Structure formats: structure tokens, C-alpha cells
């Protein structure tokens, strides 16, 4: 398999997660995962929407109030202080300016940055926990394909692997766009991500295949973004043991003629053990990589599924 190192991509991130003392109380919420582990592979663009719109450090906390679908951000003491418009405007500006990022990691439960389950206080004083921080909601609306995740959710191995895989797929598309969208390039991109897509969303895999079947009749500048939007939406769905096992079976088919029966049986045994939860994904995949090194296949060699993120991150050791 290819040993080429993946490119170093840039992620925007809530500044407090890097240890910057920008929170309302003058503190931070440093994430060891981000500061120590992910920092080895990504460049970070720190953001703090509340500081960026002129709120001081320390400062009166803000909170969301009103309609959970369209909340306002107001002071917890000075209720007349409404910073909703500045937070939305900052989100709009950053979404337009940060064209070089491949993902965004935000602070959970924050009225500016939280991605989901942010408390939105009602007139009776009780919170409804299904709001979004205004900055992140704005960013996500304007950049729907961009991978966005909360720091707390990244503690879940499945969500962490899903997010990082989407980040590298996004970065791959950015490089393709920089080189120029052509029909050939779009087909090659889809071919590289075939099995990754199949693992995440088999239904959308078939739909996108049908979409590209008629690519000769479309302008790549029009079809490309439409295809990519559908791809990134499909990759948001987390792969399961069942869908991963299905992909592993497909991959093993490429070795059918190259291996003796006992080695084919060993592969099938490990895939079955993975499907039933006995071993993690890395076990059958490592064996498949071993066999593909001995019996190379040009199509499999370019598959993003085989190594969608740096191996040293060990993201498939726990799923």
C-alpha cells in the first residue's frame, strides 16, 4: 500500500480548546486531544467569536433565549444586551474568509460555538436543550459541506474517526478544485472514495454512482459541487460494523485468485470476528494490507478507505 504521508491540513478551532484564556471567566477548556494529538497532524486557526465581536475577558456570560430554532444571545445579567447580530455577522465573515480550512472543531454547549444541545432559555426560565451556538449555526448554514464537530463528541471513537475521515476527504476535494474541476478528475475522486462511501452510506453510494453515470452531459463546474455536497452529507453517517464488514468482503474479493484457501479462510474468519465485535477494525484491515503488499492491485492502492487518515492516529484501533 502507499506510504505517502497525507498533507498537513488546516482546521479552525475554538481558541479555548487550545488553552487560550479567552472564556468569560478568563479561563480555558484545553483539549488534550486537540492540543497534543491532532496538533501533530493539523495546523490550527483559533477563533473566539465572543472576543472577536468585542466582548472582554473576563466578561458577563451570554446565553441563548427564545425560539430554539432561532434563538437570541443576550447577557445573563444585562438582558437588554443582545449580541445576536454581531455573532451572526462574525460567522458570515469567517465562513467567507476561511476558504483554506478543511474542518472546524467547536466548544460544546457554548452559546456562540456549540454545535448541538445548547441550552436555550425560555420565558419561564427553563432551558430547552436543542439549540445551536449562533456562530456555529451560521457557519454550518453557509458552509454545509465543511466537517464540523464538537470537542466533547470527539471523545467518542466512532465520531472521532468519522470526523477525521471527512476532513481528509474535504482536503482532497480542495486540492482537486485548486487544480481545476474536470470530468476526469471528478470520476477519479469518486473512484478513490468508493469504498469509504460504501462503508458510511451504501444507499448514497449507489445514488452518487447513478449521478456520475451521466457526467458527460453536464458541466463539471455545475455537477462537481452538487456531487461533493451529496458526498459530504453521506459521509456524515457513521459507518457500522456491518457496513465495514461488507466493504472488507468486497476488498477480499480482489485477492481471491492470489491467495490459497487457508489464507482466504483466515481473512473471512477475521472479518466475521470484526462483525461480531470480537476484534477492532484494524485487525482484518491490517491482514488485508499485508496481502495487498504481496499482491498489489492498482485500484485498491488508491482507495481512501485503506488509509483515510494518518495511521499513527490509530483511529481504527477502537472501532
TrEMBL record:
InterPro entries: 2-thiour_desulf, DUF1722, UCP037004. It comes from Geopseudomonas aromaticivorans. Residues 194-310 form the DUF1722 domain. It comes from the Bacteria. Coiled coil: none annotated. This is DUF523 and DUF1722 domain-containing protein. Signal peptide: none annotated.
